[in-house]
Amino acid sequence: MVEEKHLLAYKCKKCGQLHYPFRMRCKKCGNLSQFQFDTVPLPNNGKIVTFTYAYNLPGDFAVQKLGLAIVELENGMKVTGQLKTANPKIGKTVHGKIEVVRNEGFNERYGIVFY
Ligand SMILES: [Zn+2]
Asked: What is the fold of 43-114?
């Protein structure tokens, strides 16, 4: 069995504030250094806060429509990710996975996909 990749947040070493995605500067205390953050695991489950679909995508997207959601994770942190769950509803519990969300030539871009 392949171990599931965890969602990761960037925790300020000075004040403990969590960030996702990565920021150069802590949004709480202003700590400014790329070496002042620890990576910590986030809960993979959360509830949909809001969602939408984009239909007019650039040609290098492999899908015809792209679901996007803001999800409140079990620790209260809100993150944005792709949405692939069937019958999405506000408040529905979803499970986040780290997956390739885009191929740019030979570069695979990873992001969160909620199911
Ligand atoms: Zn901080």
From this structure: OB fold (Dihydrolipoamide Acetyltransferase, E2P) (2.40.50)
